[in-house]
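Project standup — Tuesday

K.O.: blocked on the structure for the chain from last sprint. Re-posting the sequence here as requested.
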Amino acid sequence: MKGLIWKDLTLVWKTYKTYVIITLVFLIAGNFSDNGFISLYPAWVVGIIVMNLINMDERSGWNVYSAALPLSRAQLVSAKYLVMLVLSLGTALLYLLIQGGWTLWQGSGLDAFLLRLPMILTVMLLWPAIMLPCILKLGYSRGSTAYIIVGGVLFGVLLGGASLLDFVTDGGLSTFSRLALLYAMPLATAVLFGLSWLLSIRIYKKKEF
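H.V.: unblocked you, prediction finished:
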């Protein structure tokens, strides 16, 4: 299992260094803009990278070759989900350090920071939670269209949700209630992510190559 995770993380570093740099740029730029997209984009990148790892496995024939190794299909699937968690937690940590640190240094903007954090956690896990079972079932080439469509819809819903929440808050919802609703989002997404993990294992065990 450690070898599988290390393989994917090494591929991420060697293949997607540009994405890492872009993520840092957007996190820093988010300190100077109220545009929600700038802060959410790094979370978006995490999902893209994990989907592309599956594509690379298919193109290289790794998914077939791995069947001859002393690895269970549950381990192969779990490695992808664990890599997803590592990248997500790493991105969230960078967000806390860069934008959280800037907020504390400025002494203002705490509300915006606290609002964006749960949305970032939700974006990072929700899209892969929905799409990973589909990609593992259909393959990347057949599932890529749905992957793009679902990703675009989710992104629009989350950005629209932020505007709706601001409207509700202006109507009298307390800050505590607003934060409680917002932080329920990543908790619900975490449950969905766990269910997606179990479903993906079940799908991959029955898959024929």
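K.O.: great, moving the ticket to review. The CA atoms of residues 11 and 53 lie 8 Å apart. The chain is about 85% helix and 0% strand.
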